[in-house]
C-alpha cells in the first residue's frame, strides 16, 4: 500500500490541498514578545482605528491589515483574530503596540456590575424589608 | 714487418677488433631494445596509473552518489515530519490562542522551524526536495520567514519594505539562502549585536543586504566563501569538513540553480560582514497595493458565507495561504505562476509515480521510503 516516493522531482501539488503552512510564523510577527502580558485586552474588548491612519504605511503587513480592518467601526478582539486568521494572543500583542502608537483606540465592554447600581438595589431591598419584613 | 707478424699483440688486435666491434654492435642493439621496452613499460605504467585514478574517482563518485541518495531519502522523511508538525502546531496555536500555553507553543514552533531548515539544507546538497510550493510572497515576508528559521531571530531587524514580491518557485530557495546568511551573521557576532536587513531596489532587481557587527572574515575565508558561493564547483556532502559547514555550500547550490547572486566580500559599516543577495528581475513580480485589502476583505467575508456554517451556527473559517493580503484566488495564483513546462514535469512525475507504484511487485531492489525497506 505504500506509495513510491519519487524524490527526484517535486511531488505533484494538489491545488485543493486545504492546509497550508504560513510563510511567516506567528512568533516572528510578534518578534518573540511575551504574549502573556496582554491582560488589558479581553476577547470582547472593542477597538477601532484612530483618525490618524496615514502612518500605517510603515507598519508590518499584519498591523496594517488590522488597522484597515478597524477603520469601518468597532470590532472585538475575537473578531479581529478571526479575520486575520491569527491566534488571539498574537492579535493582542499587535493591539498593544498599535494602542501605544495611537493608531488604535479601545473601548472596554461595559462591565455587568455597572448596569445596575448596587446601592439602588440595596435601598430597594431595604424598602421591601421595611414594608413586608 | 715480419717482426710485427710475429707480435702476438698484432694478432690479438686483429682478432680482438672484430670481436669488440661485434660486442659493441650487439650491446647497442640490446640497448635500443631495452630502451624500447622501457618506453613501453612507461606508457603501460601511465595507463595503469590513469586507470587507477579513474577507478578511484569513479568509486568516490559512486560513494558520493550513494551517500546523497541515502541522505536525500532520510531528509525527505524528516522534512515531511517537520511540515506535519508545523501544521499541528498551527492548529493548536489557533485553538489555545487566548491562553498562557500560547507562549510555549510559539517556542516549540520556533524550534520546529529550525529543525525543518536544517533538514532542508542537507536535502539541497543532496539535490533533494526543497519543500512545499509557496504562493507569491513579498520580499519583506520572505525575509521575515528566513528570520524565523534561525535561533537568535530576535536580533534580526528588517529595516525596509518594498512593493516587490518573489515568484512562487523562488520563495523557498531565497528564504533558505537568507536564513543561512542570517545564521552565519548571528553565529559570528556577539550575542547582543543586532543584525540589520535592508531591502533596496536597484536597476537590476532587488538587493537584500545583511549587515552584522561581528568579527568579519579574513582573506582566506573570503576566498573559500566566494568559491562556494559561485556555485561553479559544487561541494559534495563528503567534502564539508568536520564539523561540517553547510551554509555557503547550500547558498552556492541554490543561487546557481535559481539564478541569483550572493556575495560576502564587502565589509559592513559595523565592522562585520556585509552579505548582499541580488535578486534579478526574472525572480520578481509586483505586489498588490497595500490599500487594496479593504476591498478584498469584503470578498473574503462573502467567501466565508459561501463556505457555510458549522453545526453551532458559527461561520466556517477557511485556512489562509501564505500571504494574507489577497485571500482570494490563492490556488489560482500559484497555478498561474507555473509555466507549461513545469506543469508538464509535475504531471510527468505524477504519472511516473503511479506507474512505478503499479508495477512494483513484491520484490523491489529500491526501498520505497527511508525506514520502510521492501525486502
TrEMBL record, chain A:
Superkingdom of origin: Bacteria
InterPro entries named in the record: DUF742, RNA_pol_sigma_r3/r4-like, WH-like_DNA-bd_sf
SUPFAM superfamilies: Sigma3 and sigma4 domains of RNA polymerase sigma factors
Gene3D superfamilies assigned: Winged helix-like DNA-binding domain superfamily/Winged helix DNA-binding domain
Cited PANTHER family: DUF742 DOMAIN-CONTAINING PROTEIN
Name of the protein in its database record: DUF742 domain-containing protein
Organism: Streptomyces radicis
From TrEMBL, chain B:
Coiled-coil segments: 24-58
SUPFAM superfamilies assigned to the protein according to its UniProt record, in alphabetical order: ATPase domain of HSP90 chaperone/DNA topoisomerase II/histidine kinase
GO cellular component labels: plasma membrane
Entry GO MF terms: protein histidine kinase activity
One Pfam family it belongs to: HATPase_c
Entry keyword Coiled coil: yes
Record's catalysed reaction(s): ATP + protein L-histidine = ADP + protein N-phospho-L-histidine
Alphabetized InterPro entries for the sequence: HATPase_C_sf, HATPase_dom, TCS_sensor_his_kinase
Protein known as: histidine kinase
Organism of derivation: Streptomyces radicis
Amino acid at each position: 500500500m505504500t506509495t513510491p516516493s519519487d524524490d527526484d522531482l517535486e511531488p505533484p501539488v494538489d491545488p485543493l490541498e486545504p492546509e497550508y503552512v504560513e510563510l511567516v510564523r506567528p512568533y516572528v510577527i510578534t518578534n518573540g514578545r511575551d504574549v502573556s502580558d496582554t491582560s488589558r485586552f479581553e476577547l470582547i474588548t472593542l477597538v477601532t482605528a484612530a483618525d490618524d491612519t496615514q502612518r500605517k504605511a510603515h507598519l508590518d503587513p499584519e498591523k496594517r491589515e488590522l488597522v484597515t480592518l478597524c477603520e469601518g467601526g468597532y470590532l472585538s478582539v475575537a473578531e479581529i483574530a478571526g479575520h486575520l486568521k491569527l491566534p488571539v494572543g498574537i492579535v493582542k500583542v499587535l493591539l498593544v503596540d498599535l494602542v501605544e502608537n495611537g493608531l488604535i483606540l479601545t473601548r472596554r465592554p461595559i462591565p455587568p456590575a455597572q448596569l445596575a447600581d448596587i446601592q439602588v438595589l440595596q435601598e430597594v431591598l431595604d424598602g421591601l424589608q421595611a414594608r413586608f419584613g | 714487418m715480419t717482426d710485427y707478424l710475429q707480435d702476438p699483440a698484432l694478432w690479438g688486435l686483429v682478432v680482438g677488433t672484430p670481436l669488440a666491434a661485434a660486442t659493441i654492435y650487439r650491446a647497442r642493439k640490446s640497448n635500443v631494445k631495452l630502451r624500447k621496452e622501457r618506453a613501453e613499460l612507461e606508457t603501460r605504467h601511465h595507463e595503469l596509473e590513469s586507470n587507477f585514478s579513474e577507478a578511484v574517482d569513479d568509486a568516490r563518485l559512486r560513494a558520493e552518489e550513494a551517500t546523497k541518495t541515502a541522505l536525500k531519502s532520510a531528509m525527505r522523511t524528516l522534512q515531511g515530519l517537520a511540515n506535519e508538525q508545523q501544521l499541528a502546531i498551527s492548529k493548536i496555536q489557533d485553538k489555545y490562542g487566548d491562553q498562557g500555553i500560547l507562549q510555549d507553543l510559539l517556542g516549540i514552533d520556533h524550534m520546529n522551524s529550525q529543525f525543518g531548515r536544517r533538514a532542508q539544507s542537507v536535502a539541497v546538497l543532496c539535490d533533494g526536495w526543497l519543500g512545499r510550493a509557496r504562493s507569491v510572497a513579498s520580499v519583506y515576508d520572505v525575509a521575515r520567514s528566513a528570520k524565523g528559521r534561525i535561533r537568535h531571530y530576535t536580533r534580526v531587524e528588517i529595516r525596509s519594505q518594498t512593493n516587490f514580491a518573489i515568484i512562487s518557485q523562488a520563495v523557498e530557495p531565497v528564504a533558505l539562502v537568507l536564513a543561512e546568511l542570517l545564521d552565519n551573521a548571528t553565529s559570528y557576532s556577539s550575542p547582543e549585536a543586532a543584525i540589520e536587513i535592508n531591502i533596496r531596489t536597484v536597476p537590476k532587481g532587488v538587493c537584500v543586504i545583511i549587515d552584522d557587527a561581528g568579527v568579519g572574515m579574513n582573506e582566506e575565508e573570503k576566498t573559500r566563501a566566494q568559491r562556494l558561493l559561485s556555485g561553479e564547483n559544487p561541494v559534495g556532502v563528503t567534502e564539508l569538513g568536520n564539523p561540517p559547514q553547510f551554509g555557503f555550500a547550500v547558498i552556492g547550490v541554490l543561487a546557481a540553480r535559481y539564478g541569483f547572486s550572493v556575495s560576502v566580500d564587502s565589509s559592513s559599516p559595523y565592522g562585520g560582514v556585509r552579505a548582499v543577495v541580488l535578486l534579478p528581475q526574472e525572480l520578481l513580480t509586483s505586489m498588490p497595493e497595500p490599500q487594496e485589502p479593504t476591498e478584498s476583505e469584503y470578498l473574503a467575508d462573502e467567501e466565508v458565507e459561501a463556505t457555510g456554517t458549522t453545526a453551532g451556527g458559527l461561520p466556517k473559517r477557511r485556512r489562509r495561504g501564505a500571504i494574507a493580503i489577497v485571500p482570494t484566488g490563492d490556488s489560482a495564483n500559484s497555478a498561474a505562476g507555473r509555466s507549461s513546462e513545469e506543469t508538464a514535469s509535475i504531471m510527468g512525475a505524477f504519472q511516473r509515480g503511479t506507474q512505478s507504484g503499479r508495477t512494483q511487485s513484491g520484490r523491489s531492489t529500491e526501498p520505497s521510503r527511508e525506514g520502510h525497506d521492501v525486502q
